[in-house]
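Now for today's protein.

===
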Amino acid sequence: MRYLREPLIQFVVAAALVFAVHTAWKSWQDKSDSTIFVSETELERLAALYASEASALPGPEDMMTMVSDYVRDEALAREARRLGLDQGDTIITRRLAQKMSFMVSDLREDPVPSEEALREWHQAYADRFTKPARITFSHIFFSPSVRGDIAEKDAAVLLANLNSAPATDTASLGDPFMLQRQYGDVPLRELARQFGVEFADAIAELPASDDWQGPVRSALGVHLVHVTHKTDAALPPFDEARAEVRQDWVEQKRREANEKAIADIIARYNVEIEGVE
């Protein structure tokens, strides 16, 4: 066995071993690349997807159709990658980045906040948990497109008449309105979205009253309003808002952890921009 100690023989044996391992690996890889394996997990995923969309379990023909579509997509995707069609494609790059971002998020366990941390969060971000001001009112609309410059004057005249001799039915008064004539317990920010900020700010200053008030201008025209109930914005006590506070805390910490994990990934790469030193 002395010949095994010869350097040349050792080199030849090592090379043969490397070649054998490489051949075996290449054979396995080629087989893997040419095999589309549909696992039980994938079948369960396809069945669950069908059930969520059709509200029923898939039958044998449904499963065959889904498996056929899966195999078709997988084969086309592999052929596209083999031809390099995935290179330089912005949509594919963004999709992969999105999937990686989701994976980073899924691999992390949510932190568990302490009672003290949640109470501090409740106070530090009170605006997130404050319930918005709400208002209940009716209105009569005067359209500038119908009445022109006298819309506000007509509203003032009707206001005086209503408060001196209240009408039992106001639905027929004023002009047709595309939205509602009555709003119950609606947030002021919703009024700002529908009527404009000017109207929401003005009606927020009006007290609840038995009288009609106005005229109030909006992005749509002129209104008389009858405010029957108002609820001021308020921060609920911590014990009432605990679940919402905890959810907000966890989501914020999750976002921070994800951003740090992504920043760590980016830091592994050198970024070079042609033409920029």
Remarks:
- The mean pLDDT is 83.
- The radius of gyration is 35 Å.
- Strands lie at 134-142, 182-187, 213-217, 222-231.
